Amino acid sequence: MHTLLDALVVLLVFTNLRILGLSRINASIRTVAAQGVLLGLVAAIANAGHLSPRIILIAVVGIAVKGVAFPLMLFRALRAVKIRSEVEPFVGYIPSVLAGVAAFLISLAVAARLPLPVRPASDLLVPTALSTLFVGLFLIVSRKKALSQALGFLVFENGIYAFGVGIAYEAPTMIELGILLDVFVAVFVMGIIVFHIAREFDSIDTTRLAALKE
Amino acid sequence: MSPAGLVPAGGAVLLAPLFLGIIHRTKALFAGRSGPPFLQVYFDGIKLVRKGVVYSGTTSWVFRLAPIAAPASTLTALLLLPQGGFPALVSFPGDFVLFVFLLGTARFLTVLSALDTGSSFEGMGASREAAFSALAEPALLLCLAVAVRESGHLSLSGIVGGMTGAEWQRAGPALALTAVSLLAILLAENARIPVDDPNTHLELTMIHEVMVLDHGGPDLGLILLGQALKLWVMGALVVGMFLPGHTGSPWLDGSLFLAGMLGLAVVIGIVESTIARLKMTRVPQFLVGAGAFAVMALALVMR
Amino acid sequence: MFLRRALLLVTAATHAGLALATWFVRTHDAWGGALHLDEIGHPFLMILSGLFLAAAVYAVGYLRRESPGPRADFLEGFRFTNAPEAVFIGCLLFFLSTMTLVILSENLGLLWIAVEATTLASAPLIYFHRHHRSLEATWKYLLICSVGIGLALLGNFFLAVAASGSSGAGGSLSVRILCERASQLHIPWLKGAFLFLLVGYGTKMGLAPLHTWLPDAHSEAPSVVSALLSGALLNCAFVGILRIFQVCAAAGIASYSQGFFVLFGLLSIALAAAFLLAQRDYKRLLAYSSVEHLGILALGLGLGGVAAFGAMLHAVNHSLAKAMLFLLAGNILAAYRTKNASEVQGVLRKIPVTGALWLAGLFAITGTPPFGTFVSELLILRGAVEQGRFFVAGLYLALLAVIFVGMAATMTRMAQGPAPGAPATREDRLAILPPLALCLLVLLIGVYLPPPLDAALHRAAAALGGG
Question: Of B108, B257, C287, C394, which residue is least crowded by CB atoms under 10 Å?
Answer without folding.
Answer: C394
